[in-house]
């Protein structure tokens, strides 16, 4: 197992299979890769099926026990089922998707070995949904969530980005997951670091305060020290990375970009390591290097100066 200089073992990888997407969500950080707009067709720069599998086999050698496929929209990859099928058996396999392609493919993904799925759904109202995603695919997403639950890709976690356009929908989303078996809710604090528009952010402590009042039970998850609230039988988890040193101190994942770079932190693009021609020796070297260099974003790469987060001088020009 590889452990970085801050005692953080790397136990999971997040593989971005493409930076293409059929949506254009107004808040999208695209896992730090830039704009999702552009051609929908497969791009030459994307890792091949074999490249992805080769990488996962090396990750397994380093005792990584979980992989998350993401993007862009990972279901735009026609070889997703093949990749899932060829993922080492020792790994938990999950997918984060906008859900539009789940109807018709959920069963095949389950058969291929997918364990569970997270589906982005920011509201239960088609108009609000259209405004946020700039797409009219609300019905497809609802159908996609049902297809995932029916196939048994559970728990299906609904990812809701909480910012000024969606905060008002939190109570009905909490009620929705309490009433529907197989669903959980992840309330994701809007991250302005890469997306800009800090004025859209809301005070996540107010969300915690409201959930605390409603909750029958509160738990802490080891990963990122995330808090989870049981409300009327439903589970609601808060993903609150912004300015959160505890979150970064408990970060155990390395990311892979669609074009074959390792990335130590979502918020950084100055730490990318190429995996070259994707041979196993090259992948092993890049993996060791990225873990060696990774540091907590908040608390180390960014430090507090007069109550403002500023880049630690050590990393300027690094
Ligand atoms: N800053 C930061 N944000 C993260 C991190 N992990 C997840 N997030 C945020 O949460 C979003 C949704 O994450 P998902 O891909 O659904 O997965 P997850 O919630 O991290 O993982 P599971 O609960 O295990 O499925 C990401 O796109 C980010 O916005 C992280 O390590 N750092
Ligand atoms: C980049 S998307 C990729 C996977 C897939 N296209 C989807 O939307 O689920 C992964 C997750 O990031 C979340 N996300 C995107 N931009 C964000 C931001 N600025 N702040 C917080 N979460 C964000 C999305 O809501 C989604 O749940
Ligand atoms: S669906 Fe996912 S990748 Fe596509 S724009 Fe929305 S958040 Fe970004
Ligand atoms: S170090 Fe912090 S900001 Fe970077 S990926 Fe990990 S939790 Fe996210």
Automatic annotation (TrEMBL):
One of its GO terms (biological process) is Mo-molybdopterin cofactor biosynthetic process. [4Fe-4S] cluster 2 binds at residues 248, 251, 265. GO terms for molecular function: 4 iron, 4 sulfur cluster binding; GTP 3',8'-cyclase activity; GTP binding; metal ion binding; S-adenosyl-L-methionine binding. The keyword Metal-binding applies. Keywords: 4Fe-4S, GTP-binding, Iron, Iron-sulfur, Lyase, Metal-binding, Molybdenum cofactor biosynthesis, Nucleotide-binding, S-adenosyl-L-methionine. Residues 5-232 form the Radical SAM core domain. [4Fe-4S] cluster 1 binds at residues 21, 25, 28. Binds 2 [4Fe-4S] clusters. Binds 1 [4Fe-4S] cluster coordinated with 3 cysteines and an exchangeable S-adenosyl-L-methionine and 1 [4Fe-4S] cluster coordinated with 3 cysteines and the GTP-derived substrate. It comes from the Archaea. It is an enzyme of class 4 (lyase). Pathway: Cofactor biosynthesis; molybdopterin biosynthesis. Its EC number is 4.1.99.22. CDD domains: Radical_SAM. It holds the Pfam family Mob_synth_C. Its cofactor is [4Fe-4S] cluster. InterPro entries: Aldolase_TIM (IPR013785), Elp3/MiaA/NifB-like_rSAM (IPR006638), MoaA-like (IPR040064), MoaA_arc (IPR013485), MoaA_NifB_PqqE_Fe-S-bd_CS (IPR000385), MoaA_twitch (IPR010505), MoCo_biosynth_MoaA/MoaC (IPR050105), rSAM (IPR007197). Belongs to the radical SAM superfamily. MoaA family. Catalyzes the cyclization of GTP to (8S)-3',8-cyclo-7,8-dihydroguanosine 5'-triphosphate. HAMAP family: MoaA_A. This is Probable GTP 3',8-cyclase. The gene is moaA.
């Amino acid at each position: 197992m590889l452990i970085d200089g801050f005692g953080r073992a790397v136990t999971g990888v997040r593989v971005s299979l493409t930076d293409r997407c059929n949506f254009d969500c107004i808040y999208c950080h695209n896992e730090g890769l830039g704009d999702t707009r552009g051609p929908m067709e497969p791009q030459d720069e994307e890792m091949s099926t074999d490249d992805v599998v080769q990488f996962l086999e090396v990750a397994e050698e380093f005792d990584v026990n979980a992989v998350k496929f993401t993007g862009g929209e990972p279901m735009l990859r026609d070889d997703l089922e093949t990749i899932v099928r060829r993922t080492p058996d020792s790994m938990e396999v999950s997918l984060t998707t906008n859900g539009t392609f789940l109807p018709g493919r959920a069963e095949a993904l389950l058969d291929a070995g997918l364990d569970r799925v997270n589906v982005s759904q920011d509201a239960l109202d088609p108009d609000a949904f259209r405004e946020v995603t700039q797409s009219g695919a609300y019905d497809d997403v609802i159908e996609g969530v049902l297809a995932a639950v029916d196939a048994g890709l559970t728990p299906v976690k609904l990812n809701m980005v909480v910012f000024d356009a969606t905060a008002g929908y939190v109570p009905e989303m909490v009620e929705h997951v309490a009433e529907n078996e197989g669903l959980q809710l992840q309330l994701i604090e809007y991250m302005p670091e890469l997306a800009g528009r800090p004025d859209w952010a809301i005070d996540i402590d107010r969300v915690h305060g409201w959930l605390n009042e409603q909750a029958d039970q509160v738990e802490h998850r080891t990963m990122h020290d995330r808090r989870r609230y049981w409300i009327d039988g439903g589970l609601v988890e808060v993903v609150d990375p912004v300015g959160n040193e505890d979150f970064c101190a408990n970060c155990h994942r390395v990311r892979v970009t669609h074009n074959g770079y390792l990335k130590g932190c979502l918020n950084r693009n100055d730490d990318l390591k190429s995996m070259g021609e994707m041979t196993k020796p090259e992948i092993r070297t890049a993996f060791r290097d990225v873990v060696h260099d990774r540091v907590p974003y908040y608390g180390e790469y960014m430090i507090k100066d007069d109550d403002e987060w500023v880049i630690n001088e050590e990393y300027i020009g690094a």
